[in-house]
Specification:
- By secondary structure, the chain is mainly α.
- It has a domain of 114 residues: dinb family like domain (Four Helix Bundle (Hemerythrin (Met), subunit A)).
- Helices cover 56% and strands 4% of the residues.
- The chain has a two-stranded antiparallel ribbon with strand order 1-2.
- β1 and β2 form a beta hairpin.
- α1 packs parallel to α7.
- The N and C termini lie far apart (36 Å).
Length: 178
């Protein structure tokens, strides 16, 4: 196991209370970066065990297939990591939001192999873990604003990890039952 810093869970004053409960999906043991590494590996094991028809399955009209979900997780992690970097460096610029629906439409996820997607997933995750592992305690509690949402750097880290878990839970609930 790598030597990762402890990152305590953020307080409720460090993120919007109406945010999806992604942060609640993670234990309060401070081992966030270790969980991020392990979850990346377990997500890959789960998805790579599925037959092609499951990867293309949509449980309802307009819902994403598993490839699209994976690319959505990657895109979100990349954007939220960038926000965390800006906030950690005390940049007071209000950052724009992003339209995850539009991102997905133009992602080309269906034309990509799982190997290609997981190469990117692993690279982005490694970059995310490295970023947060290198931040000091002061940087982790700095706040910034993206769209209309204020959050601390460590809240963003927990959001990234919880967002992944949220989608893995949805895959298990809606995609593996059929």
């Amino acid at each position: 196991m790598n030597n990762y810093r402890i990152i305590d869970k953020p307080g409720r004053d460090e993120y919007l209370t109406n945010e999806p409960p992604y942060i609640d999906l993670l234990p309060a043991d401070g081992l966030l970066l270790q969980h991020m590494e392990e979850n990346c590996q377990s997500t890959k094991l789960l998805v790579c065990s599925l037959p092609e028809e499951k990867l293309q399955f949509r449980y309802a009209p307009g819902k994403w297939n598993i490839r699209e979900i994976l690319v959505h997780i990657i895109d979100g992690e990349r954007i939220f990591s960038y926000r965390a970097l800006r906030f950690a460096r005390n940049d007071k610029t209000i950052l724009p939001g992003f339209n995850h629906i539009e991102f997905n439409i133009y992602s080309g996820a269906d034309r990509r192999s799982l190997e290609n997607i997981f190469d990117e997933y692993k690279a982005v995750r490694h970059s995310t873990i490295t970023l947060f592992n290198g931040l000091d305690d002061e940087a982790l509690i700095r706040k910034g604003t993206a769209g209309k949402n204020e959050a601390s750097v460590r809240a963003i880290a927990y959001h990234i990890a919880g967002h992944e878990l949220h989608h893995v839970n949805l895959i298990k609930k809606y995609y593996l039952q059929y």
